[in-house]
Structures are given as structure tokens and as C-alpha cells.
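We both want to read C-alpha cells more fluently, so let's practise on a single case. Would you supply a protein for us yourself, any chain you care to pick? Would you write everything just below, so we can both look at the same thing?
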Amino acid sequence: MGDEDRQAILTLLRALADETRLRILGILATKEHSVDELASLLQLKAPTVSHHLAKLKETGLVSMAAQGNTHIYRFEPEALRQSNKALLTPEKVAACADDVPTDAWERKVFHDFMEGERIKQLPVSTKKRLVLLKWLAGRFETGRRYREAEVNEVIKGHHPDFATLRREMVDYHFMARENGIYWLAERVFVGCVILESLDDPAVLTGWQPFAQREADVPEDPDATVWHTAWYQVREDELRQRLPALARAMRPHWYAHFWEGDDLCMVLAGKSFWAKVSDRSTWDEFIAYGDTVGVERKWTERVPTEVPDWAKTGGR
């Protein structure tokens, strides 16, 4: 987000984060008034009212017109609608955090549970444990096959409980195993994106759909058809692309990807991870969907099966 947009959001929110200014807007929304009239209604001094009106004028929510020697103030509802449309979109709000390092929480986990290359203690929290397992997976070479004794040796270099960590590396799909041979698992997510849901479909550049087709949607006022595309994407590519996908996603729409029990939902301005089998983990994205206009008939029944036409590469 540019400095100009960020400053505009700050100016608007600061102006509205005051009870007196909200009361002034409420009064002006019903009728225009002078400073003295507002001061009388609010039982405040005129200079105090003038100060608050100046803050509101900065946002464009209030305008002033001279009537002789008196200044008359009125509420500008169109300015509020435009600010909401231009600045307070999920995409713009999410962009406020563009310069915030997204790995700060993971760095804290490393600080709390690691000392150099050694894991001091295994966290009880599954989420924190997964951070360490992901790091541990990075100690193995992609494409190489390991005997069990070799896996144990690598893990022992970082924590003595190699049996637990080896088992969890397989259970959480960081490694695959067959006939006593281990290798790094390459998780591939399957996902569906409706191209009309994106402000800029170029965000999908580099991904080739394995199936795509047009579907008539006569009840949609914005399009006569939906172009539905199905993708298979490596987990690392998906995670890298998620911020751009969320920024490009329009309100009222979503895309989703899954692999096994892991579900990834992409809505306007934000993405979420959940478990297919645990509906309580869906609550967060369902509630967020309410705020960006995604009806619950969609978010409460996210499909995690590829349709028959897509399985055959249909178009």
C-alpha cells in the first residue's frame, strides 16, 4: 500500500475515533447547522466544536458554506460512501500490513525452542511443533532416498528423540516412507479458481489448469458465464502465491485448495488454513466471509472432491 492511501485511512479512522465527532456527524446527517447551534446542542464551547469540525472537513465527510457572516456545516454522505469503497476494502485493509514481516511468529518459535542448530525442547502446541518439523525437513536433500538409520542420524544432530521426530515427519507429510526408505514429500494441492473472481487473472501466471470450462450463470449480474479452472500446485508455490491471490480476489468470491486434511481458503484480502475434518477450524474463514459478502451457503459447504468432468481434463 502506498503512503498516500495509508495516510488517508489513518486520517479517516482518527477522525471517526472520537465520540464527539460521531455525535456531530449524527446531528449533521439530519440537518445542517452552524458552530453556535452545534455548541448549544452538544453543550460545548464553540472553539471546541470548530476544532472537531476541522478534523471532519479533512476527511471530506463535512463541508462548509458561508451564509453571510455565518458558516453552515453539512454532512456529505457521498464522501463516506466513496471512502468506504476506495479505502476500506478488504484488499486495502490487508495491504496495510504489506511491510510487516510475516515470519515474525515463526522466528519467535525458533527463539523459544532452539539454540543454534539444536532443538532445546519439543513444544506441546501442534502449530509450534509444525514450525520445527518444517525446519527439520529442510535439513534433508530434495530427491535423495534415505535409509532409516540415515534419517535417524540427521535428526540426532538436532534433537535426541529421533524416533518421535522421524514418525512425526511422516505423519505430518514432510517425508514419505516406503519399505524402510524415506524421502522428502512433495505435497501437491488441488484447487479451484473462478477466473471472474480475480481483479487481475495474471496473478495465476505460471500455473497451468488441468481442467477448465465455462458454466452459464444467468443469475450473476456481472457475467454471463463463469470460467472455472482446476489446478494442481506444489505447497511451496501455493504459499508463495497466497498474498497476491488474496489481494486480487474480489469481494463476494473465494478460491480454495486442499491436500489430504489440509484446506486453504482464499478470500478478498486474506487467506486461511483449516482442517477438512474439523469444522471448528472453518469458523474463522466463515466469519470473515460474512464481512466480504461471501454467502454461507458457499463457505459452509466447500467441496473437497474434484468433479468428474475435471478428472478427465474436461473443458
